[in-house]
Specification:
The protein is α/β, with parallel strands linked by helices. About 45% of the residues lie in helices and about 15% in strands. It has 15 helices and 14 strands. It has helices at about 20-35, 75-95, 110-120, 135, 145-160, 170-175, 205-210, 230-245, 260-265, 280-290, 305-315, 325-330, 345-355, 360-370, 380-395, and strands spanning about 5-10, 40-45, 55, 60-65, 100-105, 125-130, 160-165, 185, 215-220, 245-250, 275-280, 295, 320, 340. The strands form two sheets. An eight-stranded mixed β-sheet has the order 3-4-2-1-5-6-7-8, sandwiched between helices. A six-stranded parallel β-sheet has the order 11-10-9-12-13-14, with helices on both faces. Strand 3 (about 55) and strand 4 form a beta hairpin. Helix 1 (about 20-35) crosses helix 15 and helix 7 (about 205-210) packs across helix 10. The N and C termini lie close together (about 10 Å).
Length: about 400
């Protein structure tokens, strides 16, 4: 069989980066070209500063200019529908130029365009589910717009010829809430490239901005939303500071819970013990992993756990909630990182104190984790994805 020509749809792709999805699609696309020899076209949104078409590391990137996304979730739904209409129109034009063998969409955000284009091209549709609205809201999806997004996800997963999930946890989650046959969902973990995690700052100077030499620095990274569990970490900190004395924290990220978290920090007396940095770019984040003594991932819902993987690859020990995909990124047994009982701030405090007080444990975790992360290789992700493509194309031939 000749190498397939694949159209990948994503609502974000560098230089537009909203979160981890952009990085996932970029690395997957590049490795599909490098590892499998596929011809990969990415259809995504752009702005006035990005070229409409360009080749990036072997990937053909096609962009549709869209206005800035609104913050209001109700308006965001209408904005997504408009973006899908634009992606569909651009995809139809691309279909006149190229004979695509398969369409691969990422999350509900591009489901409409992916469905129409796969039908127009008479080719299989693959959808990767990176997270679900049901999971993000702990099952509370009765009201709009959550009900709308949940409905799109249900339709999308049942419509797709194959669904890809990033963890065994997500496969079970998806098959349960969307009533799918387990055989229709393929588990392909995310990857990581340690070479992408290069710090850009003078690390000694950077650390000096946030902590004294004798202070331990705890890092929290991600979207500031309820399901990421940052309120649990803040709740655990006063006791840690009282016990150990020389502990500071950094929160890197922004989101709808930012004001509530800052208010919580003030109420807990933490204002003089840490900093909320807001949103930061990848380069700055990679430097923060290098200066932190510990990264905490306290998520209530986590499909995979990329932050934990990035921390381990950067030589920073991590403590994660015993939930979701984090269980697969950080195995049990205190081998590469520590776990705490999800939702339990008191247990989290115990684990933080344990790690910050035991240099031998810390050094062992860092050493073991540096080997563990090598099993999350983007080339393997691409090869597994290419197998899904070939299986579908063989059936449809």
């Amino acid at each position: 069989m000749s190498k397939p020509r694949v159209l990948i749809l994503s609502w974000e792709y560098p230089p537009i980066v909203e979160g981890g999805l952009a990085r996932h699609v970029r690395k997957l696309s590049e490795q599909l070209v490098a590892t499998d020899g596929a011809e990969v076209h990415v259809l995504t949104r752009g702005d006035d500063t990005s070229p409409a078409e360009e080749e990036m590391d072997g990937v053909h990137v096609h962009r549709v200019v869209e206005p800035s996304r609104p913050n209001d979730l109700g308006e965001f739904i209408a904005w997504i529908e408009h973006m899908n209409a634009d992606l569909l129109a651009a995809g139809v034009e691309l279909g006149d130029r190229y004979d695509f063998d398969l369409v691969h969409g990422h999350d509900w955000l591009v489901a409409g365009a992916g469905d129409h284009l796969a039908k127009r091209f008479r080719c299989p549709l693959v959808m990767t589910v990176h997270a679900t609205e049901y999971g993000r809201h702990q099952g509370w999806i009765e009201d709009h717009p959550q009900s709308h997004i949940h409905g799109v996800e249900r339709w999308m997963t049942n419509r797709a010829d194959r669904v890809i999930a990033c963890s065994a946890y997500m496969r079970d989650h998806i098959t349960d809430i969307y009533a799918l046959d387990e055989g229709s969902v393929e588990v392909i973990p995310n990857g990581i490239d340690p070479m992408d995690l290069v710090p850009v700052d003078d690390l000694d100077t950077l650390r000096g901005k946030f902590a004294k030499p004798d202070e331990r620095l705890i890092l929290l990274v991600g979207r500031l939303v309820y399901e990421k569990g940052f309120h649990l970490a803040l709740e655990a900190l006063p006791g840690i500071i009282e016990t150990l004395g020389n502990v500071r924290f950094l929160v890197a990220g922004s989101g709808t819970a930012e004001a509530d978290l800052k208010a919580q920090a003030t109420k807990l007396g933490l204002d003089d013990h840490g900093t909320f940095l807001g949103w930061i770019g990848d380069d700055a984040l990679h430097s923060l992993y290098r200066i932190a003594d510990l990264t905490v991932v306290p998520s209530l819902y986590e499909p995979f756990g990329l932050v934990a993987l990035e921390a381990m690859a950067s030589g920073c020990p991590c403590i994660v909630a015993d939930t979701g995909g984090l269980r697969e990124v950080v195995p049990e047994g205190d081998k590469v990182g520590l776990r705490f009982n999800g939702g339990d701030a008191e247990h989290l405090a115990i684990m933080i104190e344990r790690l910050l007080s035991d240099d031998v444990l810390r050094d062992r975790l860092v050493a073991e984790a540096s080997e563990h992360v090598l099993s999350f290789d983007w080339a393997d992700v691409a090869r597994s994805t290419a197998v899904v493509y070939r299986d579908l194309l063989a059936v449809s031939a």
